[in-house]
């Protein structure tokens, strides 16, 4: 069980790593054709994928991106297959299947297609040289052109990024950069052009798929359950053979010999059982995550778990072995099965009904009863916890918390109007629109929106499109271009109580270009570079001083802003000083009733298409992305739940059957004094009923408490949990307990029929 949990968990992460395995470790910015040729001849380089984004335009609410990529880029870096040949000549293009579906036409490689490639209204005929195997509907599509056409379209701004796969399996950043320095030697490529891809972060485990799963904790709990079962079974075996052990002492066997004999028997079972457990574990691990199964990983964990399991068995049998070695010949001759240290009752009369007999039997060996109930109870509790976590993961809650705290639909100013191929287009087009006549401030637009049935509230938020540049890890530089919040004096001062460091003074912030920054990208006193569009159309680049830092989750929890979870926040007057924009409204957030969401979205998109200067974002897009992130975790949690589910049921049946076999003499004695088989059957049914009901109570209470604690901790970190009772697993747990009850009842009935009074008394 422990082995399968480890393999399923690591297999899930290996599946995620498979997305990066074999991809480029570095990207070389602005690489020339001459440098590419030299790089491909280098023995330290496996392949180089070329990519360049040329421009974009809008078509019926969809973003169409024109780009160039070579064959290595698609097959090796993006791992996307295609039908046909990569565009080579100027009139050849490659389209993904989903874009062809969007166009509503059926094409095949070699067909001629009439297309406006730049979104400027100039249509031309192109040869469809290849079709990419992408069929999922999207909010944006790609058009891929040849390198020659890319040169013509981009002009002087054409720049290729060389995604380079090095001939090394190193995954730490230092080793990769050291190897890349050897690869670019004598090529004219400078170190500053080299950036790490996300390869090293994923492969080293710095970035993982989904929610972290506490596998060591689950393994430890499982080991405790397993040790409890081993202890119970072995203790039963020792107590069953007390008379035999006493006889061995009588003929001269020493305590040391008894100890060695009992210990050797326990280790013999371990030596036979552990390989069988590993075989079952590896089968479950492979079936659960075939794409993430790694033989090397399986061998490593098999070795570690074998040692742990052997130690666990020795710990579990320690006390039963000591019981065995301390049995004296006299104790052996008078020992009564399962009597233990029983208390003598002072009652003058006891009603021997099946229920009372069941109760008496449980009470006379409370240790066994507690172990039996705890074993299944804890298994059920862990089952309910894992199932609760898996079923309570709520991507919608996280999307609302991080990005949509006050509404489900956001309308923002387009940063590129029409087409980026338009020579008059600017890199900060949204700032130009906000400066010259903000489309979100038009009363006609507001009137159209408020009239839509289902729109309950419209909230405007100030933000300006800017670029922030800050140091990344391993000496790299990171640039993020996006809409960032601009807050007035009152709003800025409200943020003081959520700052993790620094203080805010609005006037000082405006005077020194002070900004508030997320604590994971800078600290107080750092100077970051901010770029944007100045009022005269030029691009400003200023040094901004960090005056305060905040935790983004704490910000959105206590004092949310739009756009949500920002990397930095600027004062309204600072933005006004840099851009000249007075009406800085950049986002309108629509709060919509749930039953009208689709209708409102359709109406808003129609308005946006007619307007041409605004674009629509919806929470549905974000929920879909978050759901993909959590899917591997949910799958793993459910698989662990199933493993625990089966394990607990089999273990309980095992203990009950061992217990039944050990009590055959007792049943014979009962029959000898006149007890009927129906009475014995009734007694056993009530015993199993007590065990199962006790286990269910522990499962429900323990599972509920642990679920609240675990889900609370996960929600505090990820804000993605809406506690939901796992009804299906709860009903399955109850169903399995009922099945165990009926199976054991049938088993007991069948075995009692086979057992005669004399054979039971003479048994062993």
From TrEMBL:
Keyword Transmembrane: yes
The UniProt record lists the keyword Membrane: yes
Keywords: Cell membrane, Membrane, Transmembrane, Transmembrane helix
Stored InterPro entries: ABC3_permease_C (IPR003838), Macrolide_Exporter_MacB (IPR050250)
Domain of life (superkingdom): Bacteria
Location of this chain's protein in the cell: Cell membrane
Transmembrane segments: 213-234, 269-287, 299-318, 369-393, 637-657, 688-710, 725-744
Membrane topology: Multi-pass membrane protein
Pfam annotation, one family: FtsX
All residue ranges annotated as the ABC3 transporter permease C-terminal domain in the record: 639-756
Similarity annotation: Belongs to the ABC-4 integral membrane protein family.
Protein name, UniProt field: ABC transporter permease
């Amino acid at each position: 069980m422990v082995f399968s949990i480890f393999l399923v968990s690591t297999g899930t992460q290996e599946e995620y790593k498979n997305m990066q395995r074999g991809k480029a470790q570095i990207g070389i910015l602005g690489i020339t054709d001459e440098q590419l040729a030299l790089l491909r001849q280098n023995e330290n380089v496996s392949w180089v994928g070329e990519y360049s984004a040329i421009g974009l335009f809008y078509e019926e609410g969809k973003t169409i991106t024109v780009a160039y990529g070579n064959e290595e880029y698609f097959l090796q870096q993006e791992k996307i297959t295609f039908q046909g040949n990569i565009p080579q000549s100027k009139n050849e293009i490659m389209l993904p299947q989903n874009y062809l579906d969007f166009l509503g036409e059926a094409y095949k490689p070699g067909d001629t297609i009439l297309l406006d490639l730049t979104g400027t209204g100039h249509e031309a005929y192109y040869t469809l040289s290849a079709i990419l195997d992408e069929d999922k509907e999207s909010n944006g599509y790609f058009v891929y052109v040849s390198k020659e056409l890319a040169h013509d379209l981009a002009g002087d701004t054409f720049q290729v990024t060389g995604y380079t796969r090095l001939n090394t399996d190193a995954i730490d950043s230092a080793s990769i950069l050291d190897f890349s320095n050897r690869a670019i030697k004598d090529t004219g490529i400078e170190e500053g052009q080299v950036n790490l891809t996300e390869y090293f972060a994923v492969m080293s485990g710095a970035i993982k798929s989904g929610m972290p799963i506490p596998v060591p904790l689950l393994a430890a709990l499982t080991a405790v359950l397993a040790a409890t079962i081993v202890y119970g079974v072995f203790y039963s075996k020792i107590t069953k053979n007390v008379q035999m052990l006493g006889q061995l002492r009588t003929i001269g066997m020493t305590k040391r010999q008894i100890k060695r004999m009992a210990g050797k028997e326990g280790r013999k079972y371990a030596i036979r059982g552990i390989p069988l457990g590993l075989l079952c574990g590896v089968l479950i691990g492979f079936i659960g995550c075939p794409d993430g199964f790694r033989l090397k990983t399986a061998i490593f964990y098999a070795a570690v778990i074998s040692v742990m399991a052997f130690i666990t068995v020795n710990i579990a049998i320690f006390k039963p072995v000591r019981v065995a070695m301390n049995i004296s010949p006299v104790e052996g001759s008078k020992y009564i099965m399962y009597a233990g240290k029983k208390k003598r009752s002072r009652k003058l009369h006891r009603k021997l009904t099946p229920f009372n007999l069941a109760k008496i039997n449980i009470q006379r060996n409370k240790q066994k009863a507690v172990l039996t109930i705890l074993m299944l109870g804890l298994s059920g509790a862990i089952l309910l916890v894992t199932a609760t976590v898996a079923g309570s993961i709520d991507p919608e809650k996280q999307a609302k918390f991080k990005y949509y705290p006050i509404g489900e639909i956001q309308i923002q100013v387009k940063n590129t109007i029409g087409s980026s191929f338009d020579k008059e287009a600017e890199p900060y087009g949204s700032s130009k629109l906000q400066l010259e006549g903000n489309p979100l401030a038009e009363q006609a637009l507001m009137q159209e929106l408020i009239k839509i049935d289902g729109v309950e509230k419209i909230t405007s938020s100030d933000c300006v499109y800017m670029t922030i540049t800050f140091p990344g890890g391993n000496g790299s530089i990171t640039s993020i271009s996006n809409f960032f919040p601009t807050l007035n004096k009152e709003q800025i001062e409200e943020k003081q109580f959520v700052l993790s460091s620094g203080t805010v003074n609005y006037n000082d912030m405006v005077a020194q270009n002070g900004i508030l920054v997320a604590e994971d990208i800078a600290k107080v006193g750092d100077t970051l570079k901010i770029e944007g569009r100045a009022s005269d159309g030029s691009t400003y680049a200023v040094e901004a001083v960090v005056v305060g830092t905040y935790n983004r989750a704490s910000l959105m929890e206590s004092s949310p802003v739009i756009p949500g979870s920002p990397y930095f926040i600027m004062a309204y007057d600072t933005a006004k000083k840099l851009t000249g924009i007075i009406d800085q409204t950049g986002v309108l957030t629509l709060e919509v009733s749930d039953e009208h969401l689709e209708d409102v979205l359709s109406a808003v998109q129609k308005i946006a298409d007619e307007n041409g200067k605004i674009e629509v974002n919806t929470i549905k897009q974000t929920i879909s992305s978050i759901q993909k992130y959590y899917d591997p975790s949910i799958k793993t949690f459910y698989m662990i739940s199933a493993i625990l589910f089966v394990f607990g049921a089999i273990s309980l049946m095992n203990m009950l059957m061992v217990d039944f076999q050990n009590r055959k003499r007792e049943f014979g004695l009962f029959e000898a004094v006149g007890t009927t088989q129906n009475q014995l059957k009734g007694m056993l049914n009530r015993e199993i009923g007590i065990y199962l009901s006790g286990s269910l109570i522990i499962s429900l209470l323990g599972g509920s408490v642990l679920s609240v604690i675990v889900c609370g901790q996960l929600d505090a970190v990820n804000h993605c949990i809406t506690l939901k009772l796992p009804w299906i697993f709860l009903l399955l747990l109850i169903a399995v307990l009922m099945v165990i009850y009926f199976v054991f009842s049938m088993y007991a009935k069948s075995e009692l029929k086979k057992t005669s009074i004399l054979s039971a008394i003479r048994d062993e």
